[in-house]
Amino acid sequence: MSSSPVKQTAITSYPKFIGRALWLATEGSFAFYAWMTVLTAVFLVGANAWANQVAGGMITTNMTDHVSWGLYIANFTFCVGLAAGGVMMVIPAYLYDDEEMHKVVIIGEAVAIAAIVMCTLSVVVDLGRPDRFWHLIPGIGKFNWPMSMLTWDVIVLNGYLLINLHVVGYLLYMRYLGRKPNVWWYLPFVFLSIFWAISIHTVTAFLYCGLGGRPFWNSALLAPRFLASAFVSGPAFIILVMRVLRVTTGYAAPTGPARTLIQIIRVAMTINLLMLVSEIFTVLYTGSAHAAPLNYLFFGDHGKNGLVPWIWTAIGMNLVGTALFFTPAALERSHVRILACLLVIVGIWIEKGMGLIVPGFIPSTLHEIVEYSPSLLEWKVVAGIWGLGLIILTLSLKLIVNVFTDRMHTDEPAT
Amino acid sequence: MTSTDPCNSQQAESKANRSLPIVENFTRRAAVKGGFATLGAAAFVAAISPLRQAAKSTTAVEFMQRHYTELSPEQKANVISRLEAETKEKYGADVTIADDRPIPGTKFVYAINLSVCNGNGKCVEACHKENNHDRSTNQSYIRVIEMPKGTMDMEKGSTTYSGIVPKDDKFYLPVQCQQCDEPPCVDVCPVKATWKEEDGIVVVDYNWCIGCRYCEAACPYHARRFNWKQPEVPAEEINPDQSYLSNRVRPVGVVEKCTYCLHRTRRGKLPACLEACPTGARVFGNILDKNSNIRWILENKRVYILKEELGTKPAFFYYFD
Amino acid sequence: MPRIASLFFAVLLCLFASVALAALWQSGMRANTPTSSAAEAQVSQASVHSNEAHPVIIRKPSGPPRIELAGTDPQGRTASVACSTCHSIRQANLENKTAATLDEFHQGMAFNHGNITCYACHNPNESDALRLADGSSVAYENVMTLCSQCHSKQAESFAHGAHGGMNGHWDLSRGPQMKNNCIDCHDPHVPKYPKMIVGFKPKDRFNEPSTAEHQQEGTAAHDKH
Ligand code: SF4
Ligand code: SF4
Questions:
Q1: What is the CATH number of the domain that holds B136?
Q2: What angle do CA A159, A187, A184 make, to 5 degrees?
Q3: How large is the ipTM?
Q4: Distance C124 CA to ligand 1 centre (A)
Q5: Given this model, what pLDDT does residue C35 score?
Q6: In angstroms, rounded to a whole number, what is the distance separating the alpha carbons of residues B99 and B81?
């Protein structure tokens, strides 16, 4: 490694890089400022709603002892998928040495960073005692590791955040310095992050499927299903982001990666639907203990059918979205592609959130059917989380575009 | 976000000074940005201002309190006198909070005679009063399920029955914490706020729980309750005989559960729900004592446990005459 | 690239191995939780504990029943009479099995206790006492001896705390225990346990959508944003 000159200057030039990056990332057009203002406003509404929730107790949500997790954990689950899916693009990029994909990879990592922040926030707002958050910090708190799957999740999510911050930071920094990145400084981490992406989603699935008392979750298919849907929502989100970038900044990724992404979505969505069908068949045909929540979810039970519209909307969106992806138009026409992406993103958000977390609690462990639909306050908080997530995403994308379009690089001569 | 023109001009502008983009208008821009940042920060502070009210009810000492098992005897004494003072201040009631530890050589086990239980719900009420539950929600650690005769499938049952009991074609199944020997709720807790003690009781340190409710999701018996709000109990109704790990008035935002009334049972007394049961369906005792009632029941009656297939190994048995 | 691919695969393998190890470790921990092993070692001590310093007190009826007379005497006193006041001079109807034929003090009495005669339990020769199956007399206070002749199953359960209910202490080294007797819960003439009315119900469905008006209060405060 010929990095001795780097070492000398890195101490001073990396903070400079970050400072300048921040400065430039907050630089922009009127539309940009309007967009950021809207996001900030949404975020503030969410922050205010959450503060009210903490002050008034969680009675302000619509959760009960019967349905003790709701919209927050639903959103958490989706965001984990988004984070994992964002990085899985790395696999074709490096395994098949697809050079063009590299530009996309970095977008995927930026999405992952924003998504992880959203995950963490979704969990924090779900805590009854956020003031005791420090109990979760290994060393000063009391960390029930390795027994509790939640501690695994804390570890893998934070690790994932660090890895991605490193990879994105390093690649951009090198580009900024005008140097070729040293393979040994990032490739191992890229591979670590692939494996880590799988692990964050697997561990999150284990969080639910390890609970014997909840037959709806207690299925070995849960983790693979999570992964498959992550492979859909992640790429779909990236396609959307690339489109937005192209329109707003003219930063155009080559068409090759978009094709690859669509191929991935096609395969993953088919697998996802296949697993869903197989799960439904197993449960309904045998009429096992799993049947009650599934019945409630799809058809309603004892006149209670709060989730029925949700799940059929999700299924409809997923089917239409998948069908669109399979048409040749998805490759050629961007609005078809965008529509398909939006459909599957929303579809999977519902399927993994309201369609997976909530029915785990209905019927309850004593087989009572107590329904749940999120309160206005919960919607505000989740909107606030997305607001912050999108702020982070926007800033990091701006930074990426700035660096890749050479709008920003060092004034020091490259070594 | 899709408007393109301003962006392009911006792009063109910055292309002109690619490597030195921050020269022009630096101070003015910095001032504007600084202004926006200050505005944003101020708005944020205003948005989360309700937190101040919440922070008022949490003292620094309480915030810093260590886990129950790490408290020294003096620290424990301090914590307890602080909690007693708080109850006095917030509820206007004089209470004594003890720190009841397990009696060596005991393992508590409960049994219910399903042939006798008639579903009258007196135990539910007794638990409510004994454990200082929130009055407005009639909270209780016990639920009684009315089940049609001829099935053990809880899906066919209901906890919301009312009127005259027992109904001819029904039997009644009271459910509360089973004090599992392999408690899933303890395994999942990320901060060890809940654990199993030597006499078999699964307890919660209400001052350590972060309120994630993972344990509530993990418990197969609907035994855990979350404090969705600060419990309301009138001063004259507060049961002053309290214990740190048991029936002291719980803080908001934490999980609680049945403790087999350890503030009574660890002092040799019977649990409140048992004393309240008019049909004598409930039996409680120390399974390690060969001559105990509970031992005789397990040896001589047809015994059934709930959701045996989950491997939770309950310390709670149902039997038939 | 293939080298890196295999590296990746190796890392994956390591992860699974470590998860498996952790799972093993966890089951190992379960096997020797302090609860089971420590507690078992204490069994001998447990019997020391049940040195029963305190009694089990079974409540007893206060004695033979007396019939309250209607009205008062000129001094305003009420009076009651013993069963024997009348029955000592009357002929016992040993065949009677039903309340329908009863009159005077016993008129309108309900009886639903199997197909037995009054004098299966009441003593025809000594009306202020009860009668065991072998004809010997037993005091009203000891009614449980009488019941237990037929209901030996219940008596056995009762003796082991599995029937009848109790109060006080489970640990007799720390305090006494009070138990009911048969007729505290069962009317001997109509022994079936009476029906009851459910009085207390938890209201734990505070946030169900169907009761949406309630939760509106909770969120209304935040809507003004
Ligand atoms: S019944 Fe539920 S709360 Fe009680 S020990 Fe078992 S799992 Fe835990
Ligand atoms: S709610 Fe409290 S006791 Fe339950 S798992 Fe979370 S921290 Fe542990």
A1: 3.30.70.20
A2: 110
A3: 0.90
A4: 57
A5: 39
A6: 11
| Nearest 10 degrees: Cα torsion A143, A146, A147, A148 | 60
Is residue B118 included in any domain, yes or no? yes
Mean pLDDT by 10 residues, chain A (415 residues): 49 82 82 92 96 93 95 95 81 68 81 94 95 91 89 92 89 84 84 86 92 91 90 90 86 76 90 90 78 89 89 94 90 88 94 91 92 95 97 91 74 50
Query: Considering the domain boundaries, does residue B279 fall inside one?
Result: yes
Alpha helix segments (H runs only) across chain B = 5-16, 26-47, 50-56, 60-64, 73-91, 122-130, 184-188, 214-218, 262-265, 272-276, 293-300
Structural domain count of chain B? 1
Joined tokens for residue B160: 């919301």
| Residue B25 forms part of a structural domain | no
**pTM value surpassing 0.80:** yes
Q: E-assigned strands of chain C? A: 56-58, 66-68, 80-82, 130-131, 137-138, 166-168, 177-179, 196-197
Residues within 6 Å of ligand 2 by CB: B 188-189, 191, 193-194, 204, 209-215, 255
What's the pLDDT at B291?
Answer: 93
Element (H, E) at A237: helix A222-249
Say if B252 falls within a structural domain: yes
- Report whether the peptide linkage leading into residue A146 is cis, meaning its omega lies within 30 degrees of zero: yes
- Contact across the interface for A141 and B159, Cβ inside 8 Å: no
Residue type, B302: R
Domains of chain A: 36-404 (1.20.1630.10)
Chain B: touching chains (3 or more CB pairs < 8 Å): A, C
Q: By residue range, what is the domain housing residue B205?
A: 108-320
Secondary structure (3-state) at A276: helix
Confidence of residue C8 (pLDDT cuts 50, 70, 90): low
